Amino acid sequence: MSELSYARYGKDNVRLYKVHRHEDGSQSVVEMTVRILLEGDIETSYTEADNSVVVATDTQKQTIYILAKQNPVTPPELFASILGNHFIDTYSHIHAAHVNIIQHKWTRMTVDGRPHPHSFFRDGQEKRLVEAITRRGQGTSIRSGISELLVLKSTGSAFYGFHRDEYTRLPEVWDRILSTEVECGWHWKNLSSIAEVRSVVPQFDQAWEKSRNIILETFAKDESASVQNTMYKMSDQILAAVSLVDKVDFALPNKHYFEVDLSWHKGIKNTGRDAEVYAPQTDPNGLIQCTVSRKSKAKL
Ligand SMILES: O=c1[nH]c(=O)c2[nH]c(=O)[nH]c2[nH]1
Fold first, then answer.
1. Which one, 47, 189, 217, 284, has the greatest CB density within 10 A?
2. Which of the following is catalytic: 33, 57, 189, 247?
3. Is the CB of residue 37 less than 8 Å from the CB of residue 58?
4. Residue 157: inside a domain, yes or no?
5. Are 104 and 206 in a shared domain?
6. 182 is in an annotated binding site
7. Are 99 and 214 part of one and the same domain?
């Protein structure tokens, strides 16, 4: 009558903090939220109440803490791969592990002009992301990313020449505010084993830093013709900068700032070139997405 067509289970929202105590007395901290979802020969737990195939989600949570104690948790790509491989290696009936990590910001404080040895502050909501899928016999595929990076430019953005018809009300603009909350991911070439993951470890932090710089610099410097064109330029540069990445994806909301016509009050000029006071909008917002892939080399 019915059959199970999708089954994954695991622990979500596992919050984890790790301190690293350096020899000079200073400390570094990492805070993350981890999600694990397992796949495998687990159908009978759903269909026949057979819990013998269930690695309890509590066991998964305890495993996260134990492996965090025994291994580095940075870069998060490495820790996600260590976790994924653990579940595949330890349980023969588990065939795939999906590990998602959200790394939260703790930025070291500067006090009396010097980096403070053990005090940090939340420097914005920006997150560093990892989604790692480890499949038995197929290695690990990783998407690294950034989310909730809120940016705004007060000029240097236009939007004109778009299709017009009887449904079009939006005027063309040659100077507008551009604001978005960056959600970007870069997909690494498949890494065939944990040893291969370890061999590229330095590249994970480098790619994050390069991608973040490219996003910010391009956002600031580009005379933007549209969100679409600016995000394509960002993607293209990330592909050029990180050779082990073969695909980049973006999802950028267009956070609108509307002009406010104040002419009703004593003829105040506040539109067009005179606009200074705007009304930021929460919704609706544009949402522009793309995935840009490295062109496969022409076959000889
Ligand atoms: O950069 C933009 N892209 C659009 O597709 C679009 N549509 C719109 O109304 N404003 C904008 N801006």
1. 189
2. 57
3. no
4. no
5. no
6. no
7. no
What total of structural domains would you count in the chain?
A: 2
Q: Is 19 in the pocket of ligand 1 (CB under 6 A)?
A: no
Does residue 197 share a domain with residue 90? Answer: no
Full DSSP string of 30-99: EEEEEEEEEEES-HHHHHS--GGG---HHHHHHHHHHHHHHS---SHHHHHHHHHHHHHHH-TTEEEEEE
Domain that holds residue 293: 163-300
pLDDT tens for 146-185 read 999 999 999 999 999 999 999 999 999 999 999 999 999 9
pLDDT in tens, 99-136: 999 999 999 999 999 999 999 999 999 999 999 999 99
Q: Is the pTM of this model over 0.90?
A: yes
Residue 244: which of 160, 186, 184 has the closest Cα? 186
Is residue 204 in contact with ligand 1, taking CB distance under 6 Å?
A: no
Question: Would the CB of 170 count as within 6 Å of ligand 1?
Answer: yes
Question: What CATH number is given to the structural domain containing 260?
Answer: 3.10.270.10
The preferred substitution site among 153, 157, 162 for testing ligand 1, maximizing ligand atoms within 8 Å of CB, is 162
Three-class secondary structure of residue 220 per DSSP: helix
Contact 106, 122 (CB under 8 A): yes
Q: Are residues 169 and 293 in the same domain?
A: yes
Domain membership of residue 102 (yes or no) is yes
Candidate from 153, 157, 159, 290 with most ligand 1 atoms within 8 A of CB, to mutate = 159
